[in-house]
Amino acid sequence: MSKPFLSVENLTQSFPDGKGGTMTVFENATFGVEEGEFVCILGHSGCGKSTIMNILAGLAEPTSGVVKMDGFEVSGPSLDRGVVFQNYSLLPWLSALRNVMFGVKARHPDWSKAKVAEHSETYLSMVGLDGDAIHRKPAQLSGGMRQRVSIARAFANHPKLLLLDEPFGALDALTRGTIQEELLKIWGGTKQTVFMITHDIDEAILLADRILLMTNGPLARVAESVEITIDRPRSRTGIVEHPNYYPIRNHLVHFLGRRSKELAGQPSNGAPQSPETVRIDFTSPGPDDAGDESLRLRAVTN
Ligand SMILES: Nc1ncnc2c1ncn2[C@@H]1O[C@H](COP(=O)(O)OP(=O)(O)OP(=O)(O)O)[C@@H](O)[C@H]1O
């Protein structure tokens, strides 16, 4: 089988534990992400999600193991990998438009200023920002508007991989809902590969093709890869009507509430730790198991 677009191989991260020893956050984590996929990662605080994200971004080096993108080993930051953090990280002295233009100019040094501006404005309008707002500096924008600028900036650069670290964590529920749908629209148009950390189960189901579930740390594992068997396009109000929504949601809640603890703390003994694929689908029961819910679930979980 050919290698996935993004391939994480035997990734191990240890840190000093502050008492003269070491603490292993995760060991031999091994998983892949296909080109154009939207993957969310869920797990309790401290299991190592941000550590994985920083390694994928090239901002940190793992203790051992490698990350390959498009066949090349990731080392150091690159314009091919765009990152959006929770705290927006906009340049405070530049307007919204100039914040987006800054990255586009770096990506396309041969483009005219007018072309850079036009491209940047297109992406700002995709996240609902136009008119006077795009000429304001970050301090003159609301939190939701700042996060829209960060998302427009990341997508406008067309990175091969977009890394989103809890991008909506600081937003109120209403703004969050609107921007989630804007993110889906913009992703639907560009089909970039996205890897996103979130703590919000419903957000992950709405956005992702697949959800990676991590057990608790230390010695955390990416234990499951849960396919989101809900057709696109999706909307926040539409997905709850889908027959797979609650079975998937219940599976995730049960994992995070119980199994993430039960499965935690097991050393890998040197073997690659790959997640188990879970596919929950109540829309197409097999001929022999119609009507028997437990059978259907078992049949699709491998
Ligand atoms: N530079 C560091 N030095 C020592 N320990 C670290 C360092 N960075 C992270 N850790 C530890 O590694 C573990 C994983 O941290 P990480 O931030 O990746 O978790 P997380 O899953 O992203 O948590 P959260 O959901 O709270 O953001 C934690 O126990 C943290 O204390």
What labels would you give this structure?
302 residues, alpha/beta, Rossmann fold, 7-stranded mixed beta sheet, 4-stranded antiparallel beta sheet, 9 helices, 22% strand, binds adenosine-5'-triphosphate
Quick description:
The chain has nine helices and eleven strands. The protein has 302 residues and is of the alpha/beta class. Adenosine-5'-triphosphate is lined by residues 15, 25, 43, 45-51, 217.
CATH T-level topology of the domain at 6-77 and 203-300:
Rossmann fold
Number of helices: 9
Order of helices and strands: EEEHEEEHHHEHEHEEHHEH
The main sheet comes to: 7 strands, mixed
| Strand elements, count | 11
| Structure class | alpha/beta
Global shape: globular
Termini Cα gap = 18 Å
How much of the polypeptide forms β-strand, as a percent range? 15-25%
CATH first level of the domain at 6-77 and 203-300: Alpha Beta
What is the helical fraction, as a range of percent? 25-40%
Heterogens: adenosine-5'-triphosphate
Oligomer: single chain
Region (Disordered): 263-302
Pfam family, one: ABC_tran
GO cellular component, one term: plasma membrane
Family: Belongs to the ABC transporter superfamily.
